Amino acid sequence: MPSVEVPDTLDIPHRLVRATRKALGRSQTVVDTRDKADVIPLHTSRGLVDRALRIMHALLNEAENRGYEVETRSELQRGEAEHGLVIIIQGRAFSLTITEQKAKVPHEPTPQEIRQQQRNPWTRIPKYDEEFNGRLSIGAPVRNRWQSSHAHGDGARWTLESRLGHLLRDLEDRAAEAERQQREREFREAEQRRQWYAVIAQARRNQIKKHRAKALVEQAQAWRQTIEIRDLCRAARSRTDDPMSAAEQEWLEWAEAYAATLDPLSSPFLAPPDPPANREALREFLQGDLHTHPWPFDARGNWTPDTDEPSV
């Protein structure tokens, strides 16, 4: 794995290192820039600031040399501004902060704490204090149990400087894994969408089939009625040689005219117009939520999604 060289001195500091130096303040004990915008989030004792900035200089330069973006961000969280630094790999931002680790040390009660406990025996004096221990750590701290972290730091057998290459590799692996998961998620969503549209398309075919079958049966019934009425009219005209009365003639003419209105073959023999293709019209042919995806038919019943499903 390529190592990341950390210089002993900074002749041309990274732009964010320069900005951070200007924002350090005058504290001689603790330096904390985590609440400042456009700088490197840093929380260490004053004596480790120079080393921390040299490490960040090397890390940020190496990230940019690999083609990654480095930027600071400010966001509102619960009404308060939160500032941070991110390295962007394959479109995914990884937060970074550099801090000095802390260790528990026995607490030495102060005279004020002793007097307060003497006055109130229920007063609890802490057993331990947390103090900086001289070890640096860099990464993204876990803010809650659902958030993963990526961090490396000084250890008993290594320094943070020797772990910078490992840190970048971890970020690259996380970015690749996130990309893989996104592709899998997009594939699943596309497949679910394809299946949903296939169900809708089949429901539309079933709807049209039912609609046409009903119209065809009605045409057949009308045709039978037409034949029966015309047969009846012919039989009435041929049943006697006596001239028909005006009333009979009028009734026969009306019956024959009515038969013509029933005749499905008096006009081109065509399928009926397709029924509406809105959600309400198709509800009886479907189950489940009809709003899972955008509705695939327009107001004219045309298939609109850009999918592999054929127009119906």
Task: Describe what you observe in this structure.
It is a single chain. The protein is built from six helices and seven strands, in the order αββαβββαββααα. By secondary structure, it is an alpha+beta fold. Strands 1, 2, 3, 4, 5, 6 and 7 form a seven-stranded mixed sheet that branches. The protein is rod-shaped, with a radius of gyration of 41 Å. The chain starts with 14 loop residues before the first helix and ends in a 30-residue tail after the last helix. The C terminus is likely disordered.
Give the secondary structure arrangement, pairings included.
Layout: H1 15-22, E1 30-32, E2 42-45, H2 49-65, E3 69-77, E4 80-89, E5 92-106, H3 111-119, E6 128-140, E7 150-153, H4 164-238, H5 246-262, H6 279-282
Parallel strand pairs: 2-5
Antiparallel strand pairs: 1-2, 3-4, 4-5, 5-6, 6-7
Helix pairs in contact: 1-2, 4-5
